[in-house]
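Render this sequence as a predicted structure.
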Amino acid sequence: MSVNQKKVLIITNKVLNYRNDLYELLGEKVDLTVVHAGDFKDNRSYKLIKLEKLNFKTFYYYKGLKSFLKKHTFDTIISIYDLYFLNNYNLAASKFKNKLLFWGIGISSSNGLKEKKLTDIFRLKLASKSQGVILYSETVKNIYLANGFKKEIFVATNSTLVSSQASEKLEPSNTINFLSIGALNKRKGIDVFLKALAKAKHESKINNLRAFIVGSGAEKENLEALVKQLDIVENVVFFGRISNPEKLTELYQKSIFSFSINQAGLSVLQSLGNGVPFVASQNAITGGELFNIKNEETGFLIPSGDEQDQIQYLTKLIKRTTEDKEHFIKMRKVCKTYYLNEASLDHMIVVFLKAINSI
């Protein structure tokens, strides 16, 4: 570590595996300390400090953070952009505000990133006491600008590390494969896709369609029952949970597109990083990842709301993969290029360093 490296503190809730990848890369560039309240311990290139989390109904507070900051000096402090994190108000009202950045979605994610006026007034007021914000998307940045936000705004697309083995090439296959990765819960809309798959199969007599379902969760038994009911048992493969990146890459390379109809999270970036278009509804629950789907370029945005409309759209899209497979193959290079240039972890690091050096 160089003596000239900037000393950076990130305050977060808990360190998840995908965030650890970011911290490890950032820790190679700056003298990084991460304060959290979780159980993660596998850090290597950065220091990890666990503090006690005190809960007050929906609000929470890190005991000992104030004394920790008195004992240590940092050039930049990046705190989780959460209105329920009480320490944020202390930071914004203290001498540390001159080196403070907030990092997060920047808007409510509970209703498809729609603005909540009263909440957003508080959010913008808090952010105005800092040196700026690091947001997940240009869309939210534009909302901030429209509301007259004057401080620095940086956009670091929320992303995840993709295997170095990932290639945008589609492996030759006798089947047309579709991929869903993540927890099996009702709100993802996997059942909607399966109904469309069955409709496409039975209407067009297409027998080489396959849905790869990766993950575990409460909805698995319901999905298995639905598959039997729809008479598509031979068209659906349940893999269970897979954590090995190389195994996931193998499935991506066999799939024409991936999907999560009503919930668009980090699986969007993982898919694009593997060169695979992503399918989700226009108002899917998201932390901003949905905005990486450019219709007909990096994926497909289907109608929101009415299930029958969604099934109709998906049925046509599934049929289209058999009629115009070449179009989907061309999209793969667009997806991979977009990920590398605008949405990779390396791109996140560039933005973070720019934000850190702005203070």
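Summary. The chain has a mean pLDDT of 93. Residues 7-159+344-357 form a domain with the Rossmann fold fold (CATH 3.40.50.2000).
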